Automatic annotation (TrEMBL):
The lineage of its organism: Eukaryota, Fungi, Fungi incertae sedis, Blastocladiomycota, Blastocladiomycetes. This is MYND-type domain-containing protein. Residues 140-178 form the MYND-type domain. Keywords: Metal-binding, Zinc, Zinc-finger. GO terms for molecular function: zinc ion binding. It comes from Allomyces macrogynus (strain ATCC 38327) (Allomyces javanicus var. macrogynus). It holds the Pfam family PDCD2_C. One of its GO terms (cellular component) is nucleus. Residues 371-383 have a biased composition (Basic and acidic residues). PANTHER family: PCDC2 PROGRAMMED CELL DEATH PROTEIN 2 -RELATED, PROGRAMMED CELL DEATH PROTEIN 2.
Length: 390
């Protein structure tokens, strides 16, 4: 198990939502963002995912993008650009049955030398080549999946399915826009309100520092006028080992989880594949019903044993417009994403990888409403700290 002690050891990377406010402009693929929600930004515009792969196996509705994670790798060359796309059905009821039907994760890769992006080796700035738009496949105006149906009236707008054509017509303003030359500007926010997309929010990363490093960093920053919102809150957390011996009757795995999360309470993503020296360390949210991360099917392409790459945390739910009073609302404890460690070649295709889920036990923090309340408190604290800094 990895123990983070000194500054010279590698650190896990934590993802934080940059701003909880809706964006003025959508994120651009050439900046290779990691993000929550919105339509998927396809690394390869010629091969958007087939809507058949994005259909919930439980309710047959299209699944929606929860998160896409940019994870560039050195080997092989094809993994120079690399994305993981995590889709879920937003109906909580679907997740009570076989979760493999309503949660899926896909890997996409592209080498440095490709048809779509030009990266300046000195500045690392990337621009889009003309082939990006001229050879892009048509995508659904609602969900971004590959589209094969077109609006018969304007012949310009494409859809993956009749459902999404109907949704675009009634909820996203196509009824008014169809015959006009201008396009509606607030389509994304309308689709979010119609529960067809999650709001698009950028996720930025920071290394997870040990307690001693955090104290040193805070001491160094003291007196400095700029308040970095991502500097973790300094609290005096209890030593996790105490929990191991305690007879409190509460879920120790949850307390340990809570202790680790409390150092960076706004983290939504733990990126664990950072260095071969550092074993990915899963944080279970309960002692019960731990998914077996060792017994996962090997990569069907190359046979390698899949390994834990990252963990998505339920803190992300605070950023999604979910009805926390609805017991059928989409909810989860944590998702573990396991992938082929060889980044084996895909040649423009997608590799479906494995996502496993664990829920909070009833004696951990239980309801979605409770956790949403806590997450809101944290956001409020952050805003107050930002206002104080101004
Ligand atoms: Zn479903
Ligand atoms: Zn669609
Ligand atoms: Zn039309
Ligand atoms: Zn493989």
């Amino acid at each position: 198990m990895a123990i983070i002690e000194d500054g010279d050891l590698p650190h896990f990377q934590l993802g934080f939502v940059e701003s909880p406010h809706p964006r003025d402009a959508p994120l651009a693929i050439e900046h290779f963002p990691t993000k929550i929600g919105g339509k998927p930004l396809w690394l390869n515009p010629r091969t958007p995912l087939d809507p058949a792969k994005l259909t919930c196996g439980a309710c047959s509705a299209p699944m929606i993008l929860l998160m896409q994670i940019y994870t560039a790798e050195d080997f092989p060359e094809e993994a120079y650009h690399r994305y993981l796309y995590l889709f879920v059905c937003r109906k909580g009821a679907c997740h009570r049955g076989d979760r493999r039907l309503c949660t899926r994760v896909f890997r996409a890769q592209l080498p440095l030398d490709n048809d779509f992006y030009e990266t300046d080796p000195d500045t690392e700035e990337t621009t889009i080549k003309p082939a990006y738009s001229s050879t892009a496949a048509t995508t659904c105006a609602v969900c971004g999946a590959a589209a094969s149906k077109r609006c018969a009236a304007c012949q310009k707008t494409w859809y993956c399915s009749r459902d999404h054509q109907y949704a675009h017509w009634t909820h996203a303003g196509h009824k008014e826009q169809c015959s006009r030359t201008t396009t509606a500007t607030d389509v994304t926010s309308r689709l979010v309100r119609a529960k067809l997309l999650f709001p698009e929010l950028e996720v930025v990363s920071e290394p997870e520092l040990s307690e001693s490093e955090r104290i040193a960093a805070a001491a160094a920053a003291e007196g400095s006028a700029t308040h970095n919102a991502l500097v973790p809150l300094l609290r005096a957390p209890a030593v996790p080992e105490e929990y191991e011996d305690s007879e409190t009757g509460v879920d120790r795995a949850f307390l340990k989880f809570q202790h680790r999360i409390d150092m960076y309470p706004k983290q939504v993503l733990r990126y664990l594949r950072v260095d071969p020296e550092l074993d990915p360390e899963p944080l279970f949210v309960a002692a019960e019903e731990k998914p077996d991360l060792e017994r996962v099917a090997p990569c069907p392409r190359c046979g390698a044993k899949r390994e834990l790459e990252c963990q998505v945390l339920s803190t992300v739910l605070a950023y999604l417009p979910l009805d926390v009073t609805d017991e059928n609302s989409f909810d989860f404890g944590t998702y573990f994403v396991l992938t082929c460690p060889e980044n084996c070649e895909l040649k423009g295709e997608y590799a479906e990888e494995v996502v496993l889920r664990q829920d909070f036990s009833s004696d951990g923090m239980s309801s979605l409403a409770q956790r949403a309340e806590k997450a809101k408190e944290v956001l409020k604290e952050k805003e107050e700290a930002e206002n104080d800094a101004e």
